[in-house]
């Protein structure tokens, strides 16, 4: 589904691992929530963006589904039940056109970078850090692509994931 040079990294999780510390598990659950929301947002914005955005929408949605699935496996391997997705999410502003759809998708990507940065700050576990760093990087790259499509500058913050 991706063109050469546009692949987004994925991580694999070992079948079992020690339990996560409580603050780490809470941060990973929050990041999972951001991934669930991002997947939902990609579905919503597809109704407001022209067909020329179909490929980046599909790639972004797949990236977040991969992060979501990896995160669920990470939690499960640590003995934590992954939180399910909400049936729907309430955007901060109504989505009515291309501009508001792009704003929402950028916000969803920023939410993911913030959640994954918070996870990095709360763990020393190598698997969790790799998962978080990969997901943060992927969301930051996608946010940059969407800012470029929306004509927003700067294209990326100096430190993606800062609240």
From TrEMBL:
InterPro entries: DUF4439, Ferritin-like, Ferritin-like_SF. Residues 27-162 form the DUF4439 domain. Residues 1-14 have a biased composition (Polar residues). Residues 1-21 are annotated as: Disordered. It comes from the Bacteria. This is Uncharacterized protein DUF4439. It comes from Actinokineospora cianjurensis.
């Amino acid at each position: 589904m991706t063109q050469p040079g546009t692949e987004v990294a994925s991580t694999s999780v070992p079948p079992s691992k020690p339990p996560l510390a409580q603050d780490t598990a809470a941060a990973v659950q929050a990041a999972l929530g951001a991934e669930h929301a991002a997947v939902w947002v990609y579905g919503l914005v597809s109704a407001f963006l022209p067909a020329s955005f179909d490929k980046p929408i599909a790639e972004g949605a797949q990236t977040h589904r991969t992060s979501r699935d990896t995160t669920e496996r990470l939690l499960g391997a640590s003995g934590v039940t992954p939180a399910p997705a909400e049936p729907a999410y309430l955007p901060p502003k109504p989505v009515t056109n291309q501009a508001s759809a792009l704003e929402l998708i950028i916000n969803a990507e920023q939410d993911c970078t913030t959640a994954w940065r918070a996870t990095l700050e709360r763990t020393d576990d190598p698997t969790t850090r790799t998962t978080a760093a990969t997901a943060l990087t992927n969301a930051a790259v996608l946010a940059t692509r969407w800012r470029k499509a929306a004509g927003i500058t700067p294209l990326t913050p100096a430190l993606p994931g800062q609240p």
